[in-house]
Amino acid sequence: MQPEAVRSFLTxxxxxxxxxxxxxxxQRFRRDTWERPEGGGGDTRIIEEGQVFERGGVxxxxxxxxRLPPSASAHRPELAGRAFQAMGVSLVLHPRNPYVxxxxxxxxxxxxxxxxxxNPGAQAEPRWWFGGGMDLTPYYGFEEDARHFHAVCRKALxxxxxxxxxxxxxxxxxxxxxxxxxxxRGIGGIFFDDFSDKGFEHSFALARSxxxxxxxxxxxxxxxRRGLSYGERERDFQAYRRGRYVEFNLVxxxxxxxxxxxxxxxxxxxxxxxxxVRWRYGWAPAPGTPEARLYEEFLKxxxxx
Length: 305
Prior knowledge:
25% strand
């Protein structure tokens, strides 16, 4: 296990992604470094009112503490109360043009340490795991974009075994699902958690590949759609669908819950929320419209590749 190597990769990944996004947008990200009283800190890069991105953030954090937060031990109760360290890069981009989809990506690493006085043995060893993935949330659906995004997700996982893409794709469909709405957040992608397959080197290499394929998965879609003309109708629907994004992040998202429960920096945790959102009571798009097509053809699990 090499936490220093993970941190080095994550900070380099953040720099690489931010530089590429600045080249696309033409505006620089604002840098905001912070410290956490209990231990650790982070580096949040933010863009607002850009040429392409209405709001976006690419954040690195590395925190540690004496007790693993409940959100991180819910699926592994034997680790409750252990000291921990956690690090990751997380990004969310909300473009201004409604034809350009919102995107999310993160890669994270956790390590939980034995409690003082814990009996020696397998359960007293440090426990580590990786998590992450990327998913796409369009407001207007394009099959070409969905197929491209999923093809790159599959490409990122192929070197590690043919079973990972279908497994992580299904996991993503299940995770990014708003149970109270009965609908997915978007068209999915890949998602994995509690990942420690075949030892540290294998698991770390897979997580690196996911993070390193993000720009290839997303930027071609941005370039195809950024110049499409739109009006108030499209912006209104974008704001309405962004409401679903807010609902998921505040109700279900494990990263948001972990950040708030661990005493992280609230501004950096909630950077994922869009700047303009609208809710309507009992609204549905008219049949035969592009807005209705999003629900009928895209907001359902599909095998895109």
